Amino acid sequence: MPKYTDGFVIPVSKKNLKAYFNLARKAAKIWREYGALDYKECVGDDLKAPFSLSFPKGLRLKPSETVVFSWIVYKSKAHRDAVNAKIMKDPRFAAMCDPKDMPFDCKRMLYGGFKVVVSS
């Protein structure tokens, strides 16, 4: 059973979704190459949440934006750290990380590492 997951909630301009997912497909290949067990990128579809704080409200989305929810699965936190260390040294990844050319606002991206406690 996987024991660790990195999670991301990202506001993306709707006009930049194609560019974002092109970048994500490249990133997914690199993460999987270095040992990530799974890599998912999901675009908001049903974002109305009358019973709680919705992603759009929490991120203060502009009308021209939507939410991307993504996660990467690892065997453990140590495995995540080892995979990410390799990725940070990979020139393919470095080439994708020009802050002036990102298809989303990096400063508004939410990120965290999580221990898996329930899995079925």
- Tally of DSSP helical segments: 4
The level 1 CATH classification is Alpha Beta
CATH architecture designation:
2-Layer Sandwich
The percent of residues in helical segments reads: 25-40%
* Alpha carbon gyration radius: 15 Å
Question: What's the count of strands?
Answer: 4
Overall pLDDT = 93
Can you walk me through this structure?
- The chain has 120 residues and is of the alpha+beta class.
- It has one domain (4-115): Alpha-Beta Plaits (2-Layer Sandwich).
- It is built from 4 helices and 4 strands, in the order βαβαβααβ.
- The protein has a 4-stranded antiparallel β-sheet with strand order 2-3-1-4.
- The chain starts with a strand and ends in a 5-residue tail after the last strand.
- The model has no long low-confidence stretch (mean pLDDT 93).
Concise synopsis of the structure shown:
With 120 residues, the protein is of the alpha+beta class.
Features:
120 residues, alpha+beta, Alpha-Beta Plaits, four-stranded antiparallel beta sheet, 4 helices, 4 strands, 33% helix
Helix-strand layout with pairing:
Elements (H helix, E strand, L loop, with lengths): L3 E10 L3 H17 L4 E6 L11 H5 L5 E10 L2 H13 L1 H5 L14 E6 L5
Antiparallel strand pairs: 1-3, 1-4, 2-3
